[in-house]
Design goal:
Chains: A alpha+beta, B mainly alpha, C alpha+beta
Order of helices and strands of chain A: HEHEEHEEHEHHH
Structural class of chain A: alpha+beta
Strand order of the largest sheet of chain A: 4-1-6
Strand content of chain B: under 5%
Largest sheet of chain B: 2 strands, antiparallel
Mean pLDDT of chain B: 85
Helix content of chain B: 55-70%
Distance between the termini of chain A: 135 Å
Number of helices of chain B: 14
Number of strands of chain B: 3
Low-confidence stretches of chain B: none
Shape of chain A: elongated
Structural class of chain B: mainly alpha
Oligomer: heterotrimer
Strand order of the largest sheet of chain B: 1-2
Order of helices and strands of chain B: HHHHHHHHHEEHHHHHE
Largest sheet of chain A: 3 strands, mixed
Number of helices of chain A: 7
Chain lengths: 213, 397, 386
């Protein structure tokens, strides 16, 4: 009959109209900014630099290898190496970035910098309220604005961060084990060298052979 | 009369009594003029407020149908949104294209609003609440209503822009084609009522047999007439699915593309007021005007029933808008001339037969058949010509 | 010649003193228009309401994608491919990864193939849903079907965000597999989404399929004959609606599509209604494929461990990798000269190729039909202009 499809369509719309008062999935609006959607864990927005411990300058993991700068597709990372060195989490003396700027008006959140970083130093943040009315530099984030603690990283990406932490702990354990083994070998070698250099000191209190007393 | 009955009667007539009391302070010579001014002011205030409410209702209704809230930021539940819209349209820059015909460009929205408001003069909004009791009220209404089409064409032509011209051409063709079924659908009521006066028509419908009212919509020819009148009214007001003249996704805004600021708002006002007026006429002709649906509900004031019916019709308009895509120009024309015109003519015949048969079951059967069978035949005739069918699809091997 | 001069030259019509030609109205359905699916311009010459000539003008969104790729490493171009057809970023990634894998001879592990199929078919679902929503919006249904479509799309985009980190610019495929494995609970959530999809399709169909107004406006409108489709190189649902039995998933047997039982719907009339119904049927087939893939996905590595991320230098040569994208045949042609950057990088955009016959489809129709026909071709300007 003519008009039947129209009536079916009208019934569908009426169902949605009345359903919107009753069920949640017929009224899908989230009233921002009073209500927010819960953050999905894997979300990525802009990069940030991770630091361990309490001091952001001493604990920064980045060693200014400039790999992320080279691999960044829109070339929005700008790094200058420092002249001096500081110890990293594994005790080795490394250079650090004197300046580390990311232009987030250029950054396209592709996450390639995170993938290529060998030091787990740069990770993706979930902060997207970065808009500013200053055209000339508010969107060029410097080292200090980019540095966030490892606790923050654990808070925003728990699974990823715990995997990274576990891996770093394992590396640290391995390094320590190696260092301990090396120290033991060194101590043994030292002891042996000292024994060879000063036999008298190490002589056991025994009669010299053939000494008639 | 009991105390309660007296009170309900006073409540029903409260506006009439108030206006008489106000006028009693004026000298006799001035009273007719001031009575007219008072009525005009009341109509403008009432229906302009209804317009504001309808814009909000439409946005919220459409929103709920689309699984979202409508406007709900400005005021509680978005109630001040029309105010915000009004302020916005008043403060926008009034741009007139350099090649436009300035006088006609200015006159078009004014004429539209004036013509649409004039139709309210003959609508009985309550018992004894009609502004002018003309004995050719229905004729006056349709005559004034056709001024709206002139205003639309003036708007499109004076803008001297291709999109506006396209929209104006479409609008004129559409509105003229749908005038014919509109008027013919209302002729059946005039035949039965024997009078062109709106007051007489409503008074005829305000009687009850048992609890059922004598509304004309409860007869086969009245139902068909009501359906045809409403379809034609949708087309006259350029509402979806007949809103090709303002086809937003094709020609931006049709005949009012070149308007901005307050004139744009006036176009909206004029169209909605016209929609209310046509709905009001449908209520008067078919739905019993200000009479209550059941005889035990007559204690509720008459103007309440009028506005309740008007709001129901507006909700149905919004519902249809939210569901249907728009018809193309030639399909619109086909519908008007090949479906609605024959149906209205057959409806006239049905009414005549109804009038001359004896009241009883037989005339119901005969007239219902006379209405339903052509509807189905004409409908399938439309379908057959288009050859649109439910298709089945095969899959590759 | 610049785009502007070309456009101006295109407006030189026959002189107006020819009989019958002085009533022609020329309008530019210009770059700013509510229904042209992006910045796209059509110079239309009308006789009353009928279309006499139509010339598409595009290039407003040209972003030098192919030239940028010549200066980027192969991996660095991957985020840019997201932005080609921005409604379907994952299939763009897949086509590019396929091309590079062909170039460098990289094998993809099983689990990665399943992940690619799952994300690709989810992309197809959300693309077709949105397309139907946009088509209804263009026809004036005041946004109701569009809102329902986007409601479903949001659910799928949430899945993408949980997996890849971004709703749209996913950057998920890598050469030799996928970037990251499924997080805990993703597969169950995806199964729920896919299980709820047929009910949404039924509701959608009841709003649309037997709607007389829709049928009236789309049947016998924009008819594309089979011969013209083949000779113009049309691919995708548009070709299948005209009866051309060509689905690259069945022709090329790429990835692991041979393991899934799915049908390819074909239309017979080639009009807008057919294209629209073919997409609805394809969505049902995609749901089928998804259910099979999510049931059978094995454990294992998700990327070929031998492929390098940094310093990736494929051997000199050329390769053309193509997939059945939601819009048609999406292909990448790569020429390598042994350096980390491609020597030539070319995208075969299905939207552009499908757009070339717009004039043939629209001649003799009304203005209102142009918009509907354009909507049924399913273009995204990011792909047309690159």
């Amino acid at each position: 009959m003519v008009g039947e499809g129209i009536l079916k369509g009208l019934a569908e719309t009426a169902r949605n109209f009345f359903g919107s008062y009753v069920s949640k999935d017929r009224l899908t609006t989230v009233q921002y900014p009073e209500q927010r959607e819960p953050q999905i864990e894997a979300t990525r927005d802009f990069p940030f630099l991770v630091y361990d411990g309490a001091d952001w300058q001493q604990g920064m993991r980045c060693v200014a290898c400039q790999i992320c700068e080279k691999e960044c597709p829109p070339k929005c990372i700008f790094i200058e190496k420092s002249k001096d060195k500081k110890p990293d989490a594994f005790g080795k003396m490394q250079i650090y970035p004197a300046t580390f700027n990311i232009d987030i008006s250029v950054c396209m959140s592709c996450q390639i910098c995170v993938e290529v970083c060998p030091f787990d130093a740069i990770k993706m943040d979930v902060e997207y309220h970065q808009s500013s009315d200053d055209r000339f530099g508010a969107l060029l984030l410097n080292k200090q604005r980019l540095s966030k603690s490892n606790e923050y990283y654990n808070a925003i990406h728990p699974t990823e961060a715990s995997a990274v932490d576990a891996q770093r702990a394992e590396e640290l354990a391995k390094l320590e084990a190696k260092a301990k083994a090396a120290a033991e070998v060194k101590a043994a070698a030292e002891a042996k060298a000292a024994a060879d250099a000063n036999p008298a000191l190490n002589a056991s209190p025994q009669q010299p052979a053939g000494d008639p007393q | 009369m009991t105390h309660l009955a007296l009170m309900t009667q006073h409540l029903d007539q409260i506006f009439v009594l108030t206006s008489h009391w106000l006028l009693s302070y004026l000298p006799i010579a001035l009273q007719p003029l001031c009575s007219a001014i008072l009525s005009v002011a009341a109509i403008i205030i009432a229906f302009a407020t209804l317009f504001a409410l309808t814009t909000l209702l439409e946005r919220k209704g459409l929103g709920r149908m689309q699984n979202r809230y409508g406007p709900n930021r400005v005021g509680p539940c978005g109630l001040f949104q029309p105010l915000a819209d009004g302020v916005k349209s008043l403060t926008k820059e009034d741009i007139v294209p350099i090649r436009a015909d300035r006088a006609v460009h200015f006159m078009a929205p004014v004429l539209l609003v004036a013509a649409s408001f004039m139709g309210y003069a003959v609508l009985p909004i309550g018992r004894n609440m009609v502004m002018v009791d003309m004995n050719a009220g229905v004729l006056f209404f349709f005559a004034i209503g056709s001024l709206m089409e002139l205003a639309v064409f003036m708007a499109g032509w004076s803008s001297r822009s291709k999109y506006s011209l396209l929209g104006a051409m479409r609008a004129i063709a559409q509105m003229i084609s749908y005038e014919v079924p509109l008027v013919l659908a209302s002729v059946v009521v005039l035949m039965q009522a024997g009078s062109l006066s709106t007051v007489a028509i409503v008074n005829m419908q305000a009687t009850y047999s048992g609890i059922w009212p004598h509304w004309f919509v409860f007869t086969p020819w009245g139902f068909a007439g009501f359906a045809l009148f409403m379809i034609a009214a949708t087309a006259e007001s350029n509402r979806s699915p007949f809103d090709l003249p303002e086809g937003e996704s094709e020609i931006i805004a049709g005949y009012y593309t070149e308007y901005s600021g307050f004139k744009f708002a006036l176009f909206f006002l004029g169209e909605y007021i016209g929609m209310f007026a046509t709905s009001g006429m449908a209520i008067t002709l078919f739905l019993g005007g200000w009479s209550a649906p059941f005889s035990f509900l007559t204690w509720i004031p008459s103007y309440f029933w009028f506005f309740a019916k008007l709001l129901t019709i507006i909700s149905v308009f919004i519902w249809i808008r939210g569901t249907l895509p728009r018809l193309r120009m030639d399909q619109l024309m086909n519908l008007a001339w090949q479906f609605m015109l024959p149906m209205t003519l057959l409806n006239l015949l049905t009414t005549g037969i109804w009038h001359f048969m004896l009241p009883g079951f037989l005339r119901w059967i005969v007239c219902s058949t006379m209405v339903i069978v052509p509807c189905i035949l004409l409908g399938s005739g439309l379908k057959y010509k288009k050859k649109f069918q439910i298709r089945t699809y095969h899959f590759s091997q | 010649m610049s785009t502007a001069t070309l456009a101006a030259a295109s407006l030189n019509l026959e002189p107006a003193n020819e009989s019958g030609m002085d009533q022609l109205l020329e309008i530019a359905m210009g770059p700013q228009h509510p229904s042209t699916h992006g910045v796209f311009r059509m110079n239309v010459v009308l006789d009353g309401e009928r279309v006499v000539r139509l010339k598409p003008v595009f290039g407003y969104l040209h972003r030098n994608h192919e030239k940028i790729a010549e200066n980027e490493t192969y991996l660095g171009s991957m985020p840019y491919t997201d932005r080609l057809d921005y409604m379907c970023p994952l299939t763009n990634n897949w086509a590019y990864a396929l091309a590079v894998e062909k170039l460098a001879g990289i094998q993809v592990p099983e689990r990665a193939e399943y992940l690619r199929v799952i994300t690709g078919e989810l992309t197809r679902l959300q693309n077709h849903t949105c397309l139907i929503g946009f088509l209804m919006q263009d026809m004036g249904a005041s946004g109701t079907p569009l809102m329902y479509a986007f409601r479903q799309r949001e659910i799928i985009l949430d899945l993408f965000e949980a997996l890849t980190g971004a709703r749209m610019m996913c950057n998920y495929m890598r050469f030799g597999g996928c970037r990251v494995d499924l997080p805990a609970g993703w597969l169950d959530q995806a199964k729920k989404v896919v299980a709820g999809f047929p009910r949404f399709l039924d509701e959608y169909e009841s709003l649309l399929v037997s709607n007389e107004i829709l049928m009236d406006r789309t049947q016998d409108v924009g008819v594309l004959s089979k011969e013209l489709a083949i000779s113009a190189g049309i691919s995708g649902p548009m070709a299948r609606a005209s009866g051309v039995d060509y689905d690259i998933r069945k022709v090329d047997h790429y990835s692991i599509y041979d393991r899934f039982a799915f049908r390819v719907p074909l239309g017979s009339h080639g009009d807008v209604y057919d294209r629209f119904m073919i997409r609805l049927l394809e969505m049902r087939e995609s749901v089928n494929i998804l259910q099979q893939a999510m049931r059978d996905i094995p454990e294992g590595p998700i990327v070929d461990p031998k492929t390098k991320i940094r310093g990736f230098r494929p051997k000199p040569g050329e390769a053309y990798g193509r997939i059945e994208g939601p819009k048609g045949e999406l292909g990448f042609y790569l020429v390598s000269d042994g350096s980390p950057n491609p020597y030539r990088y070319r995208v075969r955009p299905p939207s552009l190729i499908n757009l070339t016959i717009l004039e043939d489809l629209c001649l003799g129709r009304n203005v209102a039909d142009i918009v509907v026909i354009l909507g049924s071709i399913d273009i995204v300007m990011g792909e047309v202009d690159r």
